[in-house]
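Handout, page 2. Input:
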Amino acid sequence: MLCLMILASLFPSQWSHARDAGSQSDSLRVLVWNVLHGANDVEQGPEKALQIIRETNVDLVLLQESYDIDGERPKLGEWLAEELGWRQWQGESAHLCVLTPLEIKARFFHHPWHGVGAELTDEQGRTFIAWSIWIDWRAYITEELRDQPTMSDAELLAAEDVRSSRLPQAQAIIGHLDGIGHRSSDVPVLVGGDWNTPSHLDWTEDTARIYKHRRNLPLPVSLAMQDAGFKDTFRDLHPNPVQRPGLTWSPMFRESDGVATGFERIDRLYLKNPDQPRDGWILRPVSGHVLPEVWEDNAIPIEQRDFPSDHGALLMELAWEKRSAVSSVDPVLLDVLAFNILRSGNAPGPNSADSLYEQPRHDAIAKVIMHSDPDIVLVQEEYGDDRVFRILKEHEPSWHRRDGGSRGQATYARYPIEPIDQNTSRVLHPEGPLVVHNVHWKPSPYGPYIIQDTLLAEQPIEVDAILDASDKGDIYFETYRSVHPALVENIPVILGGDFNEPSHLDWTEDWARSENDRWVSNPTATRLGPAIGWKGSQVLSDPGSYRENLDLEGPLPGLQDTFRHVRSDEVSDPGHTWTPRYVNGTQGRGHWDAAGFSDPAEAQRTASLDRIDMIYVSQQLQPLRVFVLGDQGDPSSDIGFEEWPSDHRAVLATLRWLPPKEN
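Output:
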């Protein structure tokens, strides 16, 4: 009795009582719980787990570590089912179990360690599918960062697919769900368990400021689930990871040898609702908590704890509701990389301080591309040297290449490529064609350099004069004309690369009013950043304003800048791609800054920072996320590499596409 009283104190009353009669029939309560070693590490651990399940009044428990209970009793899930009078499905799994009072209509098996599932039906005949999963615990990314805080972003992310098998295992789960039709099912699908890695929704710019061992990174396991159409139920309800962290690891093991553990939300429940729901029924998250809400005194020995696991238990309440059928077309996720590789990847490199400086950089460039895992790569400065492509092809034979661009461009894709014009291609995706235009506008005249020279000459800045002096001519209109037929025919268009010109979306009045300066070691009293409507970006986004110059009839659809579509604050998030830091004295490059000069004016022109590598898309493609890849430690590099192999940072965009039904 004392044990039960203490247990009750760990949980708030709203989780310890029966549901309101009015909501009971339309709710589904789910507990996702890794019960450490079958609850054997704690005195009366199985009994404590049983009481928690009873007190939370759930309809479904997705168990991990459902091992044999010490003594003569069976595995934890089977024993709990006997005690509760419920049903369970563990099959040949070493430790995964679906435990429920609901009717089990079908049983599914993926892997003894990684996935078991069941099709369940409630008393009203509403059906859903539930999977209990677990993936690799090794190379826990939060503690990797804790123990090696100077690790590059790329090396840190390798914890997910090189030093562990988490990402391949998650992809295998998704692939299995595809193979047996669960991702396209007409009933809701739940996938919950111990993911042994945090979510990209928790590793954000804000949480990186607060938590010692986090960065703003695209963690791939949770992104894979999101890209597969699954919603993180807890984060859907509680979108702010600062205010509601939802930590499940670890209420029991808070430190080891005096070092704090890597506290994270690694136990998650994902939901995918059908596009055309059977009888109209879908599930919607309505509340979510992590148990225990009160952590026990850390001085209490493990075996005497009342909560019998090292993982917190995720308790989610979902509501059944009716919804009309929506489009049955599955979205396609496309990853596109724009990357100027500098001098075909040959020496000299961009920074004389790097080991790559006097070496060919093809392996390093290919490593960036493979790490990004894109579907399409827009390469500038390849100039017919296919060594990077050959490395990609050796690792994955499905790659295709088209070179011969007007200024050294080459387009790589995982699908066949057909030529349209010198810089425009048709990528033959299985769901339908995509038109891709690879941009490499000439580097001069370059507006920011003209402004620097004007300020150094102590002359006033006249915006119209700057625009006239930096105008690159008909290339703006040629670029749009190349994709106009596809835009009119409603074919998706991707247009990206090295524009060698800033965007009017960056050189704004808001930037001009800020204290930011693009000029490194600016010796003048005027910041590099007046509001300027750079012509190229305006032609692409608002071609209707240039109808006479374009000399085109009919509609003139505009293109959207993916980076600014997703990341709209040009002041706090400039996204500079030109240029990564280098040391003064690097061959062929001006001074980065005025280091070593007593008078900064003697070092000029020093570097001018800007976002000149961009990806534009047509309205059929929805930008979901955009990252800048570059030198480790620079604020503009979302994903950093210890030695970056180019003088441009690269841009990686993930696009969502709903292909026409007839395809």
